[in-house]
Design goal:
It is built from twelve helices and twelve strands. With 464 residues, the chain is of the alpha/beta class. It has a domain of 158 residues. The longest helix has 27 residues.
């Protein structure tokens, strides 16, 4: 049950084709003086009520926007013929909502927020980085999870995975074979037998070893299926062999919220990868509902993606303005994300460190072993990336660690993640805990006690 709060609904129309709906929820008592912005997944189109509820439940004033249109998060038809709505979705709605929310907070309480925070994942992670890059004064602390920040190339990657498995129906990998793939990956890489791979970049899993030697069955792959699997792990390339976007990592294929949901679907044409890529291709990139999906290539059409969707990319590594006003940024990504390659986030982090040099002391990256897209998976995946609860502490809550960093100048170190028996339900019992380490450090087992206890690990940079 939520505490009493004032609910403010508003509309912003920055262009003649804009209609951005937003809400601000304000606790009527016990406001902690902070403001929390909530992001949107997929193609937006909705108010994030769960994010708003989480904010007020923990004493924050919160805001959320529908990003300028109403639709399901997998529907991009609203973008057809509406450039200004694309601009609203890409960056304008989140920024305008933040400005209006702060004005409403000032009017309601007689004082603006002392500190402003934003935390979201996937497209919300892209929104988070867009704020840091374009509007560095909007938020003091930002958490960007599994960001789709290279928006144009993320779409190319989704299209690549559909092509790999469905351009030739012989290449389609049915869900019944996913346990075999994951089992082989874990056998090759999970030397500790934890059920997930600590660092898939160190894995040398060869899909060729799954090639059927005789009749096809669920325990092996055909030659076209092996080729498709290799393409998914390799990632999209053009005709010159140039890497266009990183590939996926092995180890989380069999989880129901993993490849079954995103890559294979229950049948061809039923995966989220297929849905997102076809919607973006038809209604955003080519503005043509009749676009023949299979007619595209990864040379000229990738260039078109980059040009048309440039405003959706949040890849600027120069965050000097954000840093100079005291902004702090935390990135995180699950190593077994089936939607967006975790290496894209690693690459962005590296680009910021390279660009900012010694000035990169305001950014941290946490890679999460065994986690899928934003949540789920066999690894410890609960670490307080949303609004911190009253019981949270900076050792177990990423959000609390961010607050301590912003407000007290205490930079975060390891953050302990927890795996509960029933995913994120703390009442279901703890399966294991594991420290998440600031990249490039990773958790190293010290023994001799249980690998399910975070206390038996230390953070250090892995040997090359």
């Amino acid at each position: 049950m939520l505490p009493a709060f004032c609910r403010v609904k508003g509309v912003i129309e920055p262009s003649t084709d804009s209609h951005i709906e937003f809400e601000v929820w304000l606790p009527t008592s016990g406001w902690n003086g902070r403001y929390q912005g909530a992001g949107n997944g997929g193609f937006g189109g909705y108010i994030n009520f769960s994010g708003l509820a989480e904010a007020v439940n923990n004493g924050y004033a919160g805001s959320s926007t529908d990003t300028g249109h109403e639709a399901s998060g997998t529907n991009a038809e609203w973008a057809l013929g509406h450039h200004e709505k694309l601009v609203d979705y890409f960056y304008r709605a989140i920024h305008d909502t933040a400005e209006n929310a702060k004005a409403i907070i000032q009017a309601f309480y007689g004082a603006g927020p002392k500190y402003s925070y934003f935390s979201s994942c996937s497209n919300g992670g892209r929104q988070a980085l867009m704020e840091a890059q374009r509007y560095p004064a909007d938020y003091d602390g930002i958490i960007a999870g599994a960001p789709a920040n290279f928006f144009s190339r993320a779409g190319v990657s989704l299209r690549w995975n559909v092509y790999a498995t469905e351009a030739d129906r012989a290449s389609y990998i049915p869900a019944s074979k996913l346990p075999t793939i994951q089992g082989a990956a874990l056998a090759a890489c999970d030397t500790a037998k934890d059920g997930f791979i600590d660092d898939p970049t160190k894995c040398r899993f060869d899909p060729t070893k799954l090639l059927c030697n005789g009749a096809e069955s669920n325990s092996c792959l055909t030659q076209p299926q092996v080729a498709a699997l290799k393409k998914i792990y390799t990632g999209p390339r053009n005709s010159n062999g140039e890497q266009l976007y990183p590939g996926l990592m092995p180890g989380g294929e069999a989880d129901p919220q993993g490849w079954l949901l995103w890559i294979t679907g229950a049948a061809p044409g039923q995966s989220l990868v297929y849905t997102f890529s076809t919607q973006a291709t038809k209604y955003m990139v080519f503005q043509d509902p009749a676009m023949h999906y299979w007619a595209l290539n990864f040379d000229g059409d990738t260039k078109r993606d980059d040009e048309v969707l440039a405003d959706g990319n949040a890849t600027n590594a120069n965050l000097k303005a954000f840093r100079s006003r005291g902004g702090k940024l935390i990135l995180y990504h699950g190593w077994n994300d089936p939607a967006l390659s975790p290496m894209n986030t690693v690459n962005y982090y590296r680009s910021v460190v390279s660009t900012m040099g010694r000035g990169a002391d305001f950014i941290r990256l946490y890679m999460v072993p065994g986690m899928l897209h934003c949540a789920g998976g066999p690894g410890p995946n609960s670490f307080g990336a949303g609004t911190p609860s009253a019981q949270a502490d900076s050792e177990h809550s990423m959000s609390m660690a961010l607050e301590h960093w912003v407000e007290k100048g205490v930079a975060p170190a390891a953050i302990i993640a927890t795996k509960y028996r029933n995913n994120l339900d703390p009442t279901s019992g703890v399966v294991r805990t594991r420290p998440l380490c600031p990249y490039p450090q990773a958790a190293q087992y010290t023994g001799p006690d249980s690998r399910d206890e975070a206390a038996n690990f230390v953070c250090s940079v892995p040997a090359k």
